[in-house]
Amino acid sequence: MGGVSARLEDLPLRADLRGQTPYGAPQAALPVALNVNENTHPVPQDVADDILDSIARALRDVNRYPDREFTALREGFADYLGHGLTREQLWAANGSNEVLQHILQAFAGPGRTAFGFSPTYSMYPLLTRGTGARWVSGTRGDDYTVSASDAAAQVADAAPDVVFLCAPNNPTGTPLGLDVVEAVYDATDGIVIVDEAYFEFAPADARSALTLLPGRERLVVSRTMSKAFAFAGARVGYLAADPALVDALRLVRLPYHLSALTQAAASAALRHAPVMLGMVDEIVTQRDRISATVEALGYTAHESWTNFVLFGGVDDPATTWRALYDQGVLIRDVGIPHHLRVTAGTTDETTAFLDALASVGSAA
Length: 364
Ligand SMILES: Cc1ncc(COP(=O)(O)O)c(C=O)c1O
Fold this sequence. Notes:
Elements: E1 32-33, H1 45-59, H2 71-81, E2 90-93, H3 96-107, E3 113-117, H4 123-130, E4 134-138, H5 148-158, E5 162-166, H6 178-186, E6 191-195, E7 219-224, E8 237-241, H7 243-249, H8 260-271, H9 273-276, H10 280-296, E9 300-301, E10 308-312, H11 317-326, E11 329-330, E12 339-343, H12 347-360
Parallel strand pairs: 1-11, 3-4, 3-5, 5-6, 6-7
Antiparallel strand pairs: 2-8, 7-8, 9-10, 10-12
Bound molecules: pyridoxal-5'-phosphate (PLP).
Pyridoxal-5'-phosphate is lined by residues 37, 95-97, 121, 166, 170, 195, 197, 224, 226, 232, 237.
């Protein structure tokens, strides 16, 4: 057709979306990409082969719509999570982003509010506004922690319809005590989402909010295969909650939202959970090495229970980010003054980052 393309201002865009910025972490093809908290280890070859076999079998029936209830996959997640969960309590979608979107579509929307303690995962406000709801930011202490009493008071004050508790928190890495979850739950009549995207990187004796599910029908625990499972490109996230809450999500999901190929791939990967998670210890070692080394360079590493480290004491984050970029190392400027965030990679990637940072000079 040709012609000049319209500008966004010329289109009848929803008023509440005008001026908003889309999610846009840079996707530059640099040799060392440590900016979006992926697991940088590839899926082991024998697991990849088994996943491929499963996809090949699913492909034979791809002329038909997939199992709308992704029954086998929900059973796989229930088995993986344990805690006596059954498939009626499980839900999944294309990444935990879509899982969170389903919750917001069902429980937020126009005239309602969602709440989280900033700084936190940047998609929460975007997903919230996407449903027409209002985003309300709470605050954290100087070290990014929140106490149970403060969290409960802030939530009671804001009276939101949905509360996000990112545990551990992105982009800071901060752990969150279950006492905070309990206190926040008691301070609201709304839905409380505990986002455990990074839970597998927490210390082995850390307790999951899954242990709080019995008797709390408004509590949701979300997880993802994108991080520990090295499955970000497959787009698979999931949650556990009361069966009634799961039922509500059926009202808003698209029919057959999880493709047969996705279901086959995720179920196969779950069968290999111990191997897939075998890289977690190595990543935790690299994370702790990053913390120790940036501290030795004079920066401040914030406590992290995740696969990344937020470090402070950066004089000018944009300049440091660029200097690393020019050396082929991509990390993330998350917009917190004097801070940068880096994902723990393989030993070699982590070394490349630490060497590049050292070459940029010590902290101011
Ligand atoms: C806290 C948190 N939740 C959810 C997600 C989304 O993950 P995905 O949609 O890949 O499952 C991320 C990704 O970075 C995250 O940091």
